[in-house]
Specification:
Number of strands: 4
CATH topology: Ribosomal Protein S8, Chain: A, domain 1
Shape: globular
Number of domains: 1
Strand content: 15-25%
Mean pLDDT: 94
Number of helices: 2
Helix content: 40-55%
CATH architecture: 2-Layer Sandwich
Largest sheet: 4 strands, mixed
Distance between the termini: 14 Å
Order of helices and strands: EHEHEE
Structural class: alpha+beta
Radius of gyration: 11 Å
């Protein structure tokens, strides 16, 4: 599963990511979700703190693409 946040406001991005991840967490066929943030460290930090850490998701930023967050479905 993949979501591209280019062109979306930070507020809309946070809502979209949270909704998608919570829906995906109920679907055992989804093993990971790629969140495409681009080069916005501000947006990445907001997603990490306000969504990923808040809900306890496991995630990483791949060394080959710093503009993406990969969230693992637990």
């Amino acid at each position: 599963m993949k979501i591209d946040l280019h062109g979306k406001s930070h507020q809309d991005s946070l809502r979209l990511v949270e909704d998608l991840l919570l829906d995906n967490s109920m679907d055992s066929s989804v093993t990971e979700t790629e969140i495409i943030t681009g080069n916005s460290l501000v947006l990445q930090n907001k997603i990490i703190k306000e969504v990923l850490e808040y809900h306890g998701f496991k995630w990483y930023i791949p060394h080959w693409n710093k503009g993406m967050i990969v969230v693992l479905n637990q």
